[in-house]
Amino acid sequence: MEDRWHDIDLILNRAGNLVGPGFEPGPELRDLLQSDDTRVLCVGAGGLGCEILKDLALSGFVNIDVIDMDTIDVSNLNRQFLFRPRDVGKSKALVAAERINARVSGVQVVPHHCRIEEKPAEFYKQFTVIVLGLDSLEARRYMNSVVCSFLGFEDDGSTDFSTIKPMVDGGTEGFKGHARVIYPGYTPCFECTLWLFPPQVKFPLCTLAETPRTAPHCIEYAHLILWGQVRQGEDFDADNEEHMQWVYQRALERSQQYGIPGVTYQLTQGVVKNIIPAIASTNAIISAVCVLEAIKIVTMCSPGLNNYMMYMGSQGIYTHTVAYERDPKCPICSPGVPLDVEQSMTLKEVLDKMMVDPVLSTLLKKPSVSYGSKNLYVAQGIFEADTRVNLQKTIGELVPDERPILTVNDKSLSAPMRVMLRFTDKMVM
Ligand SMILES: [Zn+2]
C-alpha cells in the first residue's frame, strides 16, 4: 500500500528548480494533504465533477466534499463514469461519493445533494480549496461571490491574506476547455473578467421569420415564434417531451417548406437547450489540470497556474496561458465602491445617497444592505417590515466601525457588492 503514493511522493519529497516559493520537500507534505485540516470541496458531480472527484481521490486527498443538486439521467452515463444504469434518477452527489468511497480506500467523500445557494457561507469557509466543475455562469458567479465575501482588507485597502479562499475553476464546452486559479483579492475574480463569457449567440428574429437558411433557424422559429402564436399562455418547458416533439415537428415542416436539410429531434434538443456535445476527454484533461492546481495550492510543490489556461482540442491540441489582471474597481473583490456619508445621516439618507451616486446609481434599483452578518435593511420580502425601523436610525449608530464596509444586494445585481462608507464628519476631527 505504501507504493500507492509513489508518484505523488516523487513530487512532494524532492526539491528542484521548478518548485514553488518556500517549498520544503518531505513526507510531512503528504501527511498535510491527508490531514483533517485539508478539506477540498468539489462543486458539481457531472461530467467534470466525476473526473475531479476521481483525480482528487487518486492524488492523495482524503477529505473531500461534493455538492450537486442534480439527479442522474440516462444520457449522462457515457461520460459520467461513476454512475451505472441502475443509478438513473438518484442523486449525483450521493452516488458519486458512494462509488469513490467504495473504490478508493481511505478516502472520505461527503455528499451534499442540494443547491449551492442552500448552504450557508460558513459551510464554504471550512474548505482549504474549492474546485468548481460547473457548467453555468450563474453558479460560477454565485461561488465567486461567496469566496469574495470572506475577504477582509487592511486599512490601506490591501487584501488581508488570511482571508483568501483559493478556488480552482474548470470548464469545458465540446473540444474546448479552460482552467483557472482564483485567489480572491489577489488574482482576478469572475466579475473582474466577466467579459470572458460572451453572451449567447441569438439569431435576429427577422431572419427566423423571413429568411431561414439553416436547420437551427427553423428550430428557433418554431421555438421562439410559433410556440407563442399557437400555444398562447403556455410556458415552453424544454424538459417536457411533448413540447419538444411539437417544436421538432413544426421545425421539420418549416425546413421542408424552405428546402433546408438537417432538422432532427436531437438537433432540436441541442438548439433549444443550447447544448454543445460533451466530450469525455476534454473533461479528463481539464480535471487533471484543476486537481494538479489544488495539489500545488496545498503543498506549494510548484508555482501555481497564473492564472487562466485555455485548451483547444478541435484541430490538434493547443493550450495557452494568460495572466489576466484584477479590475481594481471590481464590485465583488475590491474593498468596495467608496461613498462619502456623515455619521449623523440616517440609513434612509445613506440609501438615498447611493441612488444619486454616479457609480452606484447605475448598478442599483432597490438595494438591501447588511453589515457583517446583520441585516440593516431588506428591501423585499418578509424581512422588510422587520428592518424598516432601521431606516430612521443613524448610520453611526448602526455601523460603529472605523472602516465600515456594507454589503449591498439588489435584484439588479447577480451577486452582492461592497460599499465602503467614508465618514466625512469624522475626518474633520
Ligand atoms: Zn473581481
From TrEMBL:
Any single GO BP term = protein neddylation
Q: According to the UniProt entry, what is the EC number of this protein? A: 6.2.1.64
The record's catalysed reaction(s) read:
ATP + [NEDD8 protein] + [E1 NEDD8-activating enzyme]-L-cysteine = AMP + diphosphate + [E1 NEDD8-activating enzyme]-S-[NEDD8 protein]-yl-L-cysteine
What's one GO-annotated cellular component? Answer: nucleus
Using the record's annotation, list all stretches that form the E2 binding domain: 339-424
CDD domains according to UniProt = Uba3_RUB (cd01488)
Q: Which UniProt keywords apply?
A: ATP-binding, Ligase, Nucleotide-binding, Ubl conjugation pathway
Its protein name is NEDD8-activating enzyme E1 catalytic subunit
